Amino acid sequence: xxxxxxxxxxxxxxxxxxxxxxxxxxxxxxxxxxxxxxxxxxxxxxxxxxxxxxxxxxxxxxxxxxxxxxxxxxxxxxxxxxxxxxxxxxxxxxxxxxxxxxxxxxxxxxxxxxxxxxxxxxxxxxxxxxxxxxxxxxxxxxxxxxxxxxxxxxxxxxxxxxxxxxxxxxxxxxxxxxxxxxxxxxxxxxxxxxxxxxxxxxxxxxxxxxxxxxxxxxxxxxxxxxxxxxxxxxxxxxxxxxxxxxxxxxxxxxxxxxxxxxxxxxxxxxxxxxxxxxxxxxxxxxxxxxxxxxxxxxxxxxxxxxxxxxxxxxxxxxxxxxxxxxxxxxxxxxxxxxxxxxxxxxxxxxxxxxxxxxxxxxxxxxxxxxxxxxxxxxxxxxxxxxxxxxxxxxxxxxxxxxxxxxxxxxxxxxxxxxxxxxxxxxxxxxxxxxxxxxxxxxxxxxxxxxxxxxxxxxxxxxxxxxxxxxxxxxxxx
Length: 477
Known about the structure:
The protein is 86% helix and 0% strand. The protein is built from 19 helices and no strands. The chain is globular and about 65 Å long.
């Protein structure tokens, strides 16, 4: 159910991206990225990761905990909105464009609106209420797409994206409150509860802050070292890069955290569930990354147009980003679900050091270098997560290797075949759009066939299990 809803969201996002790429210039997209960078950063503090503590918490005192989180996040959201408004001129100064500062000022109000969704959304995720995925996510994505495209077509430029953001947030708040069936006042806010949940949430808050700092550093460096147009290219390249991985990671992540939390006191079940999750998410992530390596530049040019070739260059280099996300998603959810959130601090530290450590020297190589830095940082965090999770779920390095190595080897072989065909003979981006996309689809099919075939040779048991699962899915359909 989660995956089905995400497919809808991704389709809407892809169509919206393609249409807006024709209506807006890379500079306008870059101005929106620059103008909302501060809002994205401060929004992390507005939530404070308290919703994660609410999801992980048991049933005892849940009403009091929900009211505590609600009022804490509302207050913080209001403060962060005011801080974003006050700091808007600084954004314009950093990026050297007054429009970026104006976008930052006007976008500040989205944070207080988002604060009203925190508790309703967390309670729905906690009880596996898939209306959060099936209704709210598609509705908000469709709202942004329709509003932004209509206003962009009417000549509003970068402001079409700002207006779309407010419309999206209004629908999000309305739908969350309508579906969650929760209202504040059932419990009593408590400073003691806030402290208790804040201790659990702090490592996740720290991780989110570091991730946002890294995002800001990427945006500022690309905007200052390169230019605003390159920032727009980078934003759209990243947007396409995260779409396939989001389908794999978010569909599982939405259920993994509450599921791991429920079975954290049963070591045998926790270990088995973790191994299943890491196996299948990695199995799905490897060929997606492989297709970006082989055909990323062609995909961007065919979908967005020749003027967005820079986004394709960045997209190709970001192929490892989804792989790192896949590893981090499963390991972090297992660590959080077990209640040992302090271990996440190691992943946070590695993300900060590797992200900035790779970005500073590689940004001089343009968008390809920025993409490589993103991939390297994500993979570093994912590998550290695998190391940390061993003591939490009781798996060994050998067990992880047996699960992850066969799909990796099969993926490398499949990518090699398709990359040679694309670079030497096919050149999909040099054909008309329909023909080129057909070639890319053909490359994806060939990559999948070679991947599964190689996996059956390398690890027959895993290959047979894949075929049985595919047969069950087709039969049910």
